[in-house]
Design goal:
- With 140 residues, the protein is of the alpha+beta class.
- 21% of the residues lie in helices and 41% in strands.
- The protein contains three helices and six strands; from the N terminus they run ααββαββββ.
- A hairpin with a 2-residue loop joins strand 1 and strand 2.
- The longest helix has 17 residues.
- The two termini are 26 Å apart.
Amino acid sequence: MQERIQRMLDGHDSSSPAWRWLGLRLIGAEPGQTRLRMEVTEEMRNHGGVCHGGFLSALADSAMGSAMATVLPEGERHLSFDLKLSFIKPVQVGQTVLASGHVIHSGRRTGVCAARLEVGGDLVGTASASFIVYLPEHTS
């Protein structure tokens, strides 16, 4: 598991400005899986009065990306290069969304992950993403 994941599990804030701005919290991790939490704030509300899908997408992408970090050695970076999200139920302002990400495939250069988004035990969305893995750069 990469050191940054363990630091967050130990209660430290994420080094990601996006995670901090969104209020994402890592609440669990083990090899190949993570669990995140996001409180939906008024600033996340769309014109329809519910959580904008882009915020749920960021949560799902973060859950899957952090799951990848649990199976990659320190120094390897990874970035999602595609993402599919299916919305099942709207999420209201004030609700807490729990995201569970898990690794389906982790190869030398690519990875595939899936995520579930839930509110109060009810499924509100599912996602999948593919990741490119960048090997550590060697410096001489």
